[in-house]
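ok here's Methyltransferase-like protein 2:
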Amino acid sequence: MEENQLMESGVSELNSNAFFIDPVRILNRSYTRFRVSPSTYYSRFFDSLNSAQSPKASEDSRKGKRKRRKKKKIQSLNEREQIADRRHQEVKPFLLKAHEALLKATDLLKVLRNLRNDGCAVGECKELSQESSELSFMELRGVWQAPLCEIVLNYQQDDKTLQNGGSPLTQSIEPKVTLVFNNLVANEGSYDIEAELFNHKYIIPKRSCFYMSDMQQIDSLIPAGSDCGFNLIVIDPPWENGSAHQKVRYPTLPNRYFLSLPVKQLCHTSGALVALWVTNREKLRDFVENDLFPKWGVTYAASFYWLKVKANGMLTGELDLFHHRPYECLLLGYCDGKDTHSGNSTRLNPIPDNRVFISVPGDYSRKPPIGELLLDYVPGSMPARCVELFAREMIAGWTSWGNEPLHFQDSRYFSKRHGVLTISLCREYRLQGSSWWLAISSDILRSGCNHYDETL
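and the structure:
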C-alpha cells in the first residue's frame, strides 16, 4: 500500500502524523521532456556498506554510547541550550514514532534502497562530473556586464499553449532572449524548456517563473494588486551557521537582514500561509518568535519536522547528538490579508502540530519539495499562488526568487525522457478498456522506450 502511494505521487503516508516522500518523484511532475536524475539528486547517504547493515542492529549498537554522551552533554548545557534540549525532548516521541513506522514498512524500505537508481535505464544513471563546474551566479552578478546578461529560452514547436497574436505557435519557434537578472523570466507553456546562459544549460519547468536578484531588488516581486499576491510563501533563508561558512557552500546573511523581507506585501488579499525553514539553534528560534514573525505580521500556527534517513532507513545521525541532529524544523504561520479585516476571512483547516515527513536528503542545504503537504492549510481559492524565497530550484506553478534560483536547474542534474507518451495517446489507449496497459507496454517495447510519464 505504502509502495503504491509512493510510486503514484511521491508521498507515502506512514501513519496519521508521518509521511515518507521521494523528492525526485515529486519534482518530476514538473517536467515533460526531462527528468530529475535520481543518481545526481541522491548524491549522499547511499553508502553500500551501511546500506547492507540492519537499521535496528545499528541503532542498538549505538544506544549505550548515545546515553553516555547525552548525560555528559546535558550537565554542561547553558540556559539557552537547555531550552533547546527541552524542545528536542518534546518532539522526540513524534520523531521516533515516525521512524518506527518507516522501519516497519518493509516494502517501502525495499523501494528506498533503490531510489538512487530508480527509473534509470542501462547506462543512464550518472554521477556529477567534477570537470564541468557550475556557473557561479554570485560571481556573475559582480561583473559590470551583469545588467546586460541574457538568457536564451528554447521553446519546442509542439507547445501549443504559447500564443502568437492569438494563434497557437505550431510552426518553428524562435528562441526568446531576455535579461536574466532583476527580471521576471517565465515559461508559460505546458512543457519544460531548455535555456542557455554562457554555454551552460538549464531546465525550466512548465508554467513556472523566476526572479533572480539580491535583497535590494526583492520589492520588484511585490504584485501591483493584493489579489494577485501569493497565498503560500516558503522561505529558506541563508542563516548564518558555522557549517555553511566552513564548507563555503553559499553566502550567509546576519539575521537582521531578513527583517526587511516584504512578506506582508507579498501576501494575497485572502492572506497567506508562511513556511519558514529554521535550524535547531535556540538563538534563532528566539529571534524568529520574538522579532521576525512579529515584524512580518505572521502569527505562529504549528511546526513540521523533516527527519533525514539513509538508503537503508537508518537516521543520518544520532537523534540525541546536540549539535548535529538528523532533522530540521519548518515553522508555519499565517499572515493576514485584507479580507480578514472585512469579515470575509476564509475558514482554514487546523494545522496538525509536530507532523513529520521523512526523506533521504539530496545535496547539502537542498530542501525537499513540501508544497503539496501544505496546500490543505492555504487560505484563499485554489489553485494556490506559490512563491519560494531564497530558492535554489524551480517547481511547476511556482515563482522562485533569490540569488541563484537556477542552481539545481543545471542540466547536469537532469536526463532526457525517452519515448514519453502524450496525454492524447494515453486517452486513446484508455478507450480500449482493460487492454490499454497492454497496448502501452507494447508501444514502449516497439519504440525502445525506457520509461513513460507517470503523471498521466
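+1. DSSP finds 14 helices and 19 strands in the chain.
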